[in-house]
Amino acid sequence: MKLFFPQWQGSGNGTSIQNGALAIRDHFGKHLFQELFLSDLPAGGDGQQRFKINNYNAITQQLSRFKVFLEEKQPETLTVLGGDCGLEIVPVSYLNDKYPHLGVVWFDAHADINTPNDSPSNNFHGMPLRTLLGEGIPEMDPLLFSQLQDKQLHYVGLRDVDVAEQERIRLGNIYHSEKVDVPDLIQTLQAKGIQQLYLHFDVDCLDPKEYDKTYYQVPDGIPIAAAERCIAVLKENFVVVGTSVLESVALNDTELKPITNLLEALLK
């Protein structure tokens, strides 16, 4: 099932993320995606902070709708076009509940594993993995279908990490790599008995010298060709049951051109 869910509220004020998601949807064709509508509660400059999470009411309302949708439809696979990284708590926890040998490969410059108390920004797109691990605020636990374990998480392209996140990754012995080491990643996944994968792809994992239409630009990222090869090899060795493309801010096909092949691999 292909879903269009252009949540931006998890970034605080990043409405450009919604516009970027619209550009990718239009590139492939609106008819290919089922759209999940966003909350109309105040957000951004008018949003409220609750439990140290910006735009809390809007985020939880629309994620609750997302969860109910999946409960009703019960898809076997998910392709999610978003949107900010905070939306991932619903599709990842859904597929984790369905597939007992799921691994998550998190292509991202950022760890997204802060708690609200540790977050420098209080934006939820920096908190989804901590929430998925069952270490977020209890008020958000009802949005989850299941919880992840540390051993299921694998970072690729990680290079902009807060101090508290570094400590959590260390304590959990969570796999992380700044660059792409395909043989090591494959070996690690296989050694854990992982059979299915969810591929989270925040475009800021890429080198901004090759693709700069990202909500955040973090130097020294993954070459586009390396990301393409990694995804291809993962698909050859595992059953990919879920993918996402998140936080692009490109507005047209010309700006999307450098990552066209990546989008095809992840969304088609």
What key phrases describe this protein's structure?
268 residues; alpha/beta; Arginase, Chain A; 8-stranded parallel beta sheet; two-stranded antiparallel ribbon; 10 strands
Describe the structure.
It is a single chain. The protein has about 270 residues and is α/β, with parallel strands linked by helices. The chain has a single domain, classed as Arginase, Chain A, CATH 3.40.800. The chain is about 35% helix and about 15% strand. It is built from nine helices and ten strands. The strands form two sheets. The protein has an eight-stranded parallel sheet with strand order 2-1-5-10-9-6-7-8, with helices on both faces. α1 links the parallel β1 and β2. α7 runs parallel beside α9. The longest helix is centred in the N-terminal third of the chain and has 18 residues. The termini are close together.
Report strand %.
Answer: 15-25%
Helix content: 25-40%
What are the secondary-structure elements, in order, as H or E? Answer: EHEEEHEHEHEHEHEHEHH
The tally of strands reads: 10
How many helices? The count is: 9
* Total tally of structural domains: 1
- The backbone outline, from C-alpha atoms, is globular
Distance between the termini: 10 Å
What average pLDDT do the residues reach? 98
Question: What's the architecture, going by CATH?
Answer: 3-Layer(aba) Sandwich
Low-confidence segments:
none
